[in-house]
């Protein structure tokens, strides 16, 4: 190497030394160690483990590779200093595998950085996974490969591979099969030897599949991580690898297990590995393999064909892996929707019908901040009151046209007596055209909706009816009735709370009962005039006649945490929050509609 | 139900209905209520409403005083504004029904209150 050239490299390395230290905290030097730092190439500029192995393993066995996401340097270790030195001298400033075929610049380091992402585990299997090597002979492999020729037609070409289905078509749009529409082409009978062998040599004595998917992977192709849909297939799934080996990764939470699938091996997935672990193949041309001796080697991929056999499930999946089970999630969401609407019917809509007259008597004084909002609209504005109740905010601004709506016809009768316009509707859908009103108010309404989806749906509806630039005011009851150490009037109305100024009364546990309603949902009954202990509660309404309690009704409330209302509203991307405030035990928001698009 | 309210109501939230507007009116009892005339309010309301729908709705319940088109320079035409005021705010449909133009679904009006509630399977 010429002096000029050597000096150039040295200058370069001095600079890179600082960059590596800044990026990774690793001190590099020119004193040989087993650890080599590639200072100018890493994941961020296109270097891969495969390239490192391809070019550096010819010098000797590599025992570790650390590549950090987002970094432009990489680290690897040889099993001895001598090998490291030899490789270093042969490649530093010469080997052109850095970005744009530039040479790599190397240094040594005493240690490798902690790899934060690569927690890949080898020589271990997820629970329920079995690999049977040499499950078939080479002749049988040839026979199976001949069953299925791929003709490159568009229909069987996937983005990453080619596929063919037998028995039933696996649909990639919904990750399921049409169980009532079997394909004319059944699983070829040549495959029968596989389960005969399985029945003989394993615990799975009865497995006979009725669906086969053949995948054809060229080098560089892979399959994204997935769990085979629970409701589509039974527990056991077997997959035969033909012609070339590949590394399949199994992931669950932060665990990542690499499993080598040699040609002619059978991979058996059952139980946890089938239901709760994802599996996938990284699209690349060769695999990095950690051998049992603890060194990394590169395994070039050839064309690999896999035969995956599955048994169609009849009925729903009943596994215990709730997180990944589509049968469970499907049931849960419909059940929740039904019970939310049942709770509202029983503990909101019918209660207001029953208490309307008494409720209306006690709801005459408008809240000043709501009134101020109503009065802020110009002459000729149209304002919709969603959940208007007895209409205490209607007709207050004489220059606007305001209409109320509510589910309770008994309360709307009160509106009519006062000559207010009103109609009956549920706030989940408003019978108004898009972009028709200048303002919406919804005071103490959406806390009566029994699921977050429904509360969001109600807000979406209000925003939909607003003109662009129109404003909505929403009030909901706050869980915290003691904000800034000030008791709200709701709390103060309790005599005990009025007397004592210290701690506010929190209901004693034993005073609270739970009510199990018809839909099987159990809700705590709140003790009136006390701080809330739960977010979803039943609040008693005592119907009085001549000051005597005649009947008690339980109203459902979802009381809101500090930022819950604003977070919910801002899930819509066509509104902005103009003001968010706490007003006498309520969380309040003023929204402005910014565009037609509904988020 | 005033015709101004009718001008904004739709059945579009129903399953299978795309526009649901305007709703037809079948009126069994119509009353006239006196409302203070506010020419500024009426003039501001005119550009906001669907005039064709208002005109059609008024005709369908026997209010034939409105011209087919909004007159020019209506802001200063008190006679015209009074007519509009009357049709928009003073005519009150007490009993009858609103009918979805696409499905024929009927929404009853009782005591002046249209019932737009839908069954769960209609949404």
TrEMBL record, chain A:
Residues 208-313 form the Fe2OG dioxygenase domain. Its EC number is 2.1.1.229. Pfam families: 2OG-FeII_Oxy_2, Methyltransf_11, RRM_1. Residues 34-111 form the RRM domain. GO terms for biological process: tRNA methylation; tRNA wobble uridine modification. Its cofactor is Fe(2+). It catalyses: 5-(carboxymethyl)uridine(34) in tRNA + S-adenosyl-L-methionine = 5-(2-methoxy-2-oxoethyl)uridine(34) in tRNA + S-adenosyl-L-homocysteine. InterPro entries: AlkB-like, AlkB-like_sf, AlkB_tRNA_MeTrf/Diox, ALKBH8_RRM, Methyltransf_11, Nucleotide-bd_a/b_plait_sf, Oxoglu/Fe-dep_dioxygenase_dom, RBD_domain_sf. Its main location: cytoplasm. Catalyzes the methylation of 5-carboxymethyl uridine to 5-methylcarboxymethyl uridine at the wobble position of the anticodon loop in tRNA via its methyltransferase domain. Catalyzes the last step in the formation of 5-methylcarboxymethyl uridine at the wobble position of the anticodon loop in target tRNA. Has a preference for tRNA(Arg) and tRNA(Glu), and does not bind tRNA(Lys). This is tRNA (carboxymethyluridine(34)-5-O)-methyltransferase. It comes from Acanthoscelides obtectus (Bean weevil).
TrEMBL record, chain B:
InterPro entries: Trm112, Trm112-like. It comes from the Eukaryota. Its main location: cytoplasm. GO terms for biological process: rRNA (guanine-N7)-methylation; tRNA methylation. The keyword GTP-binding does not apply. One of its GO terms (cellular component) is nucleoplasm. The keyword Transmembrane helix does not apply. Pfam families: Trm112p. One of its GO terms (molecular function) is protein heterodimerization activity. It is found in: Cytoplasm, Perinuclear region; Nucleus, Nucleoplasm. CDD domains: Trm112-like. Keywords: Cytoplasm, Nucleus. Belongs to the TRM112 family. This is Multifunctional methyltransferase subunit TRM112-like protein. It comes from Acanthoscelides obtectus (Bean weevil).
